[in-house]
Design brief:
- The protein is α+β, with helices and mostly antiparallel strands and 137 residues long.
- It has one domain (6-129): OB fold (Dihydrolipoamide Acetyltransferase, E2P) (Beta Barrel).
- The chain has 3 helices and 6 strands; from the N terminus they run βββαβββαα.
- Strands 1-2-3-5-4 form a 5-stranded mixed beta barrel.
- The longest helix has 15 residues, at 59-73.
- The relative contact order is 0.21.
């Protein structure tokens, strides 16, 4: 079923998410509850979250970050806050994560696996350059 999401583009929305699966430490797949009892499955990039990549030299740290994110959402009521249904360049919805009604900081969820934006960019650049253990393939 195709859902028109343009109506959500004007004001910040707080949307219930269920069936959450952490793809990595900064991306989830979840069922998003929309107005009028409509649901849509979406990949969601969590704003402000930067985690090690799941492949390459930091694969173990990436897996641990993914597991921490999964553990943080399991058994809790989770929402996303977004202004419209904007996608990033990979087609993921970008949104802020709320767990039990509170906005969560990446450090609260990922602990020592939370990266700064600069660290994350450096890791991606290294992986794209094909440095030792840095292949994204």
């Amino acid at each position: 079923m195709q859902v028109n999401l343009t109506a959500l583009n004007t004001h910040p929305q707080y949307l219930l998410i269920t069936n959450i699966r952490a793809v990595d430490g900064d991306t989830i797949v979840a069922t998003v509850t929309l107005p009028l009892e409509t649901w849509v499955q979406r990949r969601i990039r969590l704003k402000g979250f930067y985690a090690p990549e799941m492949k390459g030299r930091d694969a173990l740290a990436g897996e641990r970050a993914r597991q921490r994110l999964q553990d943080a959402v399991d058994g809790h009521e989770c929402h996303i806050q977004c202004r419209g249904m904007r996608n990033d360049r990979y087609g993921r919805l970008t949104a802020v994560l709320l767990i039990d009604g509170r906005v969560v900081h990446p450090g609260q969820v990922l602990g020592e696996f939370a990266l700064s934006a600069e660290q994350h960019k450096a890791d991606l650049d290294h992986a794209r350059a094909g440095g030792p253990g840095g292949s994204l393939l």
